Every structure is written in C-alpha cells, then in structure tokens.
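Lab notes, practical 5.
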Amino acid sequence: MTNHDLFRAASNPDTNVNYLQELSKSPDEVVRAAVASNPSTNQETLLSLVGDSSSHVIENLMETQNKFDCSSYEFARTKLSKLVLAKTEDAKFILSLRENTNLNKFISYVDSDIEKQTQWLSNYKNRERVRAEFYFIIKGMGNESLGTVRLYDFQTGSFCWGSWVVNPGSPRKAAIESALNVYEFAFYVLGFSQSHFDVRNENVKVIEFHKRMGAKVIKSNDLDTFFILKKEEYEATRDTYKKFFIQE
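Output from the prediction step:
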C-alpha cells in the first residue's frame, strides 16, 4: 500500500481498531498523526502515541475528541505496589505527605489548604484528559496509599517525573517499585524514548539511585543535578531489578 492509502485508512473511522494500532507504528508521521485524530482509535493506542517524537502527532493527540477519561486506570508491573491515577478525593492524603517535615525537604512548597489542593487536582484532571500529565497515587496491592509520583513536562519523545514522595511506613521496596513502574509505564505504554529530570544536590541517596538505574548527569548548578535516562540505558539495567517484577 502507498503512504496515501495508509493515510486514508488511518483517517477512516470505519478502520478496524487493531489495524489502527498497527498504523500507529508507521514510520510516516502523517499516518501516525491521522491515527491520533481518528475518533475510533482506542485508548491503548492513543496512550502509545503520547511519547511520539513528532510534534504533529502530539498536536493531533491533544486536539482529538477522544479524551482520556479513565479515572479508575491502574498500572502495575511490580509485585507489591501499583500506580493508580490520583483523584480530587486524594487531596487530604497528598497534603499529609507534602506537609510531613521528614518528606518535604526536597520538594516544592505547598500551601496547607485542602481546598487549594483539591482545586489543583481538579485542574490537573483537565491536563490528564488530554494526556499531558499523569499524577499517580502509589498503592500497595491491598489498595493502601503509600505515596505519590507524577509524570509531566512532556516533550517530543521525552518526559519528566517528580513529586516522588513515599510514606516512611511503606514496605521497604515501595520506592524502588514505584520508580520501576514509572519507567515501565512511560517507556512501554506511552512510548517515550527518554526521561529528563532533576534532583536536589542534597538528596544524595536519590542521586545515587538514579545513577544505578543508568541515568546520566548532563549538568548541575548550586541547587540541582540534571539527568537524562534513555530507554536503552534503562533496559541495560532492567534485569538487575527483575526480582521486583511480576513474572510474565
């Protein structure tokens, strides 16, 4: 088939959803962009385009009428914890973490106002609907809330993550598992090819953790160290953490 034929199929609402998923992997960005705009494209395929390296694809994905409206969405590749999309009802839990003086040394200041936190989450849900940001509650398999983590600042092919706070009373490996789930979700569900993020210089343990995961320091200043972790670098160290993963 010619690229024109592929484009017509990708644009046609009657095209089979499985074929649309196949077309979403086309080397032609025009075809992928058409898939992003197609109202018949399913949520799984639309999520896989979030990390696309083409700005044209991302523009169509943001504008599609088929919004991400999966408030009960959960993601888990690890044995003892999972990521569950945050809701406005989580405001009290999130605020309790961010107000904890043992946990908030290396995160941005937050106003101790439950109404403001609830409004922030309400505004966030609008960004979530267009797949521009994902804010998760880290939960144990018994559904107990353990912490938070957020994926944001999506650039073509790259994502940032932060707001990573884990309750000290959580299972010992919850922090490691949450980081693994972030990378599994971003690289293999959203389709990103790298991550960019920064860590406070004083947060030495977290800096060392990221280095062990394969992240590379690209620059630093008086306050922060800036990292990039490419998908292939994550994959090179992934087997080191295989004991944490659910056996496939």
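Observations recorded by the TA: DSSP finds ten helices and eight strands in the chain. Residues 74-244 form a domain with the Aminopeptidase fold (CATH 3.40.630.30).
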